[in-house]
Amino acid sequence: MKKTRMLAAALSALLACALPLAGAMAQEALPQMVKVTFPEGKAQPVPQEAKDNYTPSESGYGADNLSYHDDSLDVQIHNIRVYDTPVVVAFVQIASPDQLKTELAKRYPSKTTMRASVIAKRVKAVLAVNGDWFTYHNTGIVYRNGELLRNRANEEYDGLAIDVNGDFHIVRPMTEEGYAQLDTPIVHSFAFGPALVIDGEVQEIVNRKVTYKQRMAIGQVAPLSYVLVATDGPDQKDSVGLSVPQLAELMHGLGAHTAYNLDGGQSTSLLMNQTKLNGQAPKTMRAIGDIIYFTTAIPNE
After folding, report:
1. What b/e readout covers 129-140, taking b as 16+ CB neighbours within 10 angstroms?
2. Distance of CA 274 to the CA centre of its chain
């Protein structure tokens, strides 16, 4: 099985190298998730308190800091180029939905901000990305780690809800009635958007000015399997940046059946082992209000 995974990963890397350098995107050349199977009985319940999260195994990280694997968590990073822009793609698979967590810089309703690396280190995150920085705004229905923090409907926004099974749901519009339609309890929800992919269909982005910027998106590929994307923008060398419609096409091409746009611009941060992978040297890091992160479910020995 290990040899098969290595061959598949090598093939994905070769395909990624074949991506066009021009504006068009060849979806068939995009890397794809390589399915892993975790051994039964290895993963344990993840601590409820972030301070008690298990420490990831140092031997789990690849030498290039572009991968991580243990008996509960698999992360594979690809550096690709699409739409004349460098893009970091992270495929993540977890053994338990509790391994997908969120963390604020300070307890709500504080508007405190911190660098993503500081928050990620505090919670022992293997991989982390910026969230929606909802504390910067004053609307939206927001759950974090099972707690309802804000209940202010916004009919102009799409919401992303993540349920207790780790499954993604787009709530459109973001209202109490919309959330009431969900059959499973919500653990996390986000107030940013728009939705990029719903039920495997790329969404038409309407009533939105087309701009090209750094972008961050998260999507679900399969049960407990996710893809995260961080793009460069026009402030980086040899980079145009992506529009929201281009981001939607990219997430669909990477296999997401549900995908959502998160806070972007200077907030865009994708970190492995507290090291920022997106952006070019110097890798500046803006202070933000919250992160989405993945943690191991293997207790420390």
Report:
1. bbbbbbbebeeb
2. 15
Mean pLDDT score of the chain, rounded to an integer? 91
DSSP secondary structure code for residue 2 in this structure: H
| Partners of 58 in the β-ladder | none
Phi-psi category of 50—alpha, beta or left, where left has phi over 0 and alpha has psi -120 to 50? alpha
Give the β-pairing of 140-144 and 186-191: unpaired
pLDDT tens string 39-55: 999 999 999 999 999 99
- Pick from 227, 255, 272, 225: nearest CA to 99: 225
Strand partners, 183: none
Q: Which residue type sits at 292?
A: I
pLDDT tens figures, 127-181 = 999 999 999 989 999 999 999 999 999 988 899 999 999 999 999 999 999 999 9
For the chain, how big is the Rg over CA atoms in Å? 18
- pLDDT attached to residue 206: 82
Residue 32 CB-half CA count within 13 A: 12
d(CA 47, CA 298): 11
- For residue 25, report the phi and psi dihedrals to the nearest 5 degrees: -120, 125
Instruction: For residue 243, count other CB atoms closer than 10 A to its CB.
Output: 18
Helices (H), ranges, the chain? 2-17, 116-122, 176-180, 244-253
Instruction: Name residue, tokens 């993840």.
Output: 46
Length of the chain: 301
Q: pTM for this one?
A: 0.91
